[in-house]
Amino acid sequence: MGKLIVVVGSSGVGKTTLVRLLCKQGGFGSGLEEHVERPFQALFKTDPRFALANQFDYLLLRAEQERDLRSREEVGIQDGGLEMDFFVFTRLFHRKGLLSVHEYALCERLYAQVRAAQPAPDGILWLQAPLDVVVQRFARRGRTLEIAVRDDLQSIAALLNEWLKDVSPSRLLRLDASEDDPAYRRCLPAALDFIGRI
User: Fold this and answer.
1) How far apart are CA 32 and CA 92, in angstroms?
2) Which uninterrupted H or E stretch holds 86?
3) Do 176 and 14 contact (CB within 8 A), yes or no?
4) Within 13 Å, how many C-alpha atoms sit on residue 113's CB side?
5) How far apart are the first and last CA of the chain?
6) What is the mean pLDDT of residues 143-151?
7) CB–CB of 14/133 below 8 Å?
8) Scanning 4, 80, 84, 152, which has its CA 20 to 30 A from the CA of 60?
9) For residue range 65-115, what is the model confidence (pLDDT) as tens digits?
10) Which CATH architecture has domain 4-197?
């Protein structure tokens, strides 16, 4: 079974860019968010009734990506991942009233079943930057199918902290992404070293 590393952080902080750079440098397999390809993303953006279908689709996608990445010999790097989609985005949408109590419970059951059948990621790379930096990057990226909005960024940061505070320090590496460094020259060596030690 291959190793699985997830890259987490606020929307717009630079997770996808880091995943692509890591995969290029290390020859790793990748699992990306696939916003445009997801069948319910555009529907959810215009109609909140598709929130549950969208979350189910993402949780299943992440489970499928994990299974595929772990079946390979090389390390797999996932952009976000199952835990982030559940502990951050499913909770965010529930708190915003986009998922009912029962819909949230359904997502929680799905997450629990997947995690009981598949091991958790071996390591977590947590990209961190001050809120004002994340807000600027989020505004610049201009994704057409963005579900989270600028006003959600503070909540996303709080949900990340809430989830990751109990993760073992041996499985977690915090990376300072506050500087404008699109090539991640400062973060890449530490990230690659961490992956090699996991």
Assistant:
1) 20
2) none
3) no
4) 9
5) 14
6) 68
7) no
8) 152
9) 999 999 999 999 999 999 999 999 999 999 999 999 999 999 999 999 999
10) 3-Layer(aba) Sandwich (3.40)
pLDDT category at 131 given cuts 50, 70, 90 is: confident
Give the best-scoring range by mean pLDDT among 12-16, 33-37, 72-76. 72-76
CB of 25 closer than 8 Å to CB of 99: no
Supply the Cα-derived Rg of the chain in whole angstroms. Answer: 16
The residue behind tokens 């979350």 is: 55
Task: Give the residue ranges of DSSP H helices in the chain.
Answer: 15-26, 41-46, 51-70, 82-83, 91-95, 101-117, 131-141, 153-164, 188-197
Strand partners, 174: 126
3-state helix, strand, coil in the chain (%, to 5): 55, 10, 30
Residue 108: how many other CB atoms lie within 10 Å: 15
Lowest mean pLDDT among 33-37, 113-117, 155-159: 33-37
